[in-house]
Amino acid sequence: MAAAAAAAALAAAEPPPAMPQAAGAGGPAARRDFYWLRSFVAGGIAGCCAKTTVAPLDRVKVLLQAHNHHYKHLGVFSALRAVPQKEGYLGLYKGNGAMMIRIFPYGAIQFMAFEHYKTLITTKLGISGHVHRLMAGSMAGMTAVICTYPLDMVRVRLAFQVKGEHTYKGIIHAFTTIYAKEGGFLGFYRGLMPTILGMAPYAGVSFFTFGTLKSVGLSHAPTLLGRPSSDNPNVLVLKTHINLICGGVAGAIAQTISYPFDVTRRRMQLGTVLPEFEKCLCHYLTILFQYHEGDFEVCLWTPWNSKRIISWFIS
Questions:
Q1: Is residue 222 scored above 70 in pLDDT?
Q2: Are 270 and 157 in contact (CB under 8 A)?
Q3: Within a 10 A sphere around the Cβ of 39, how many other Cβ atoms?
Q4: Which among 36, 69, 112, 134 is most buried, taking Cβ atoms within 10 Å?
Q5: pLDDT, tens digit, for every residue of 15-71?
Q6: Contact, 83 vs 75, CB < 8 A?
Q7: Rounded to 10 degrees, what is the CA torsion of 202, 204, 207, 213?
Q8: Cα separation of 175 and 182, whole Å?
Q9: Are strands 226-228 and 236-238 parallel, antiparallel or unpaired?
Q10: Residue 129: its pLDDT value, please?
């Protein structure tokens, strides 16, 4: 869940360091603005490079999560070999253009929302420290996800297409088709709820795991894993490569725990283009609430032959 990862990373980030004012230079506010602008541009470029690097794996993940009938019988590495054979090497990068377009507005909204929420939480709720950065980062991530979700929807639809079976000709055509045939703007927000729900466990597990690894590492092997902070030599921080390893482990554990939400989101995003038997889980079973002799009867039905599977009563 890239969105949750970005929110967690932003929430964990320390505020920009104070910079001494040089003669003739702008004030602290101007330097702070320059810091965020530089971070935004650098982060956007780094994000584009990172997403392009892992785009083949992301395309395969979408194909396997939604059980594309051409590749559902394959594993990850088999699919990585099969996609170029069937669609050429550019087939591994389907949908990556929409992702590149999404990165910069996502980052801009997240940065602005993070500062706003951080100030709001501090002034209105009186919460500070790591907790208020976690809350502000999570809320900023949710805001950025909601604002840029239509681009993620289009990206997934394009990535799921297979050569010779194209429903959408490109990003603009996908936008216009979804808007015209799937209920207007609401059609772009299929699967938003599991996305939002998945961000909470991801951020919580990621922060907890990283904090635990950091505390254990610095307490048991401070000279091997730690180094003096550049701001305060009396404070130990993790070395860069150890910090990267701990972050990777924390992200992998958090991603594994929240992965069911990601699968649910993909199935819901692709619900209208999947075959009838492969649609989102909510279409496998229809839950009917029936009032029967003073009790609510909950019945589960199959959509293809209206056969009742199970029913029970709630008093």
A1: yes
A2: yes
A3: 14
A4: 134
A5: 444 444 444 445 566 666 666 677 677 777 888 888 899 999 999 999 998 888 888
A6: no
A7: -90
A8: 10
A9: antiparallel
A10: 67
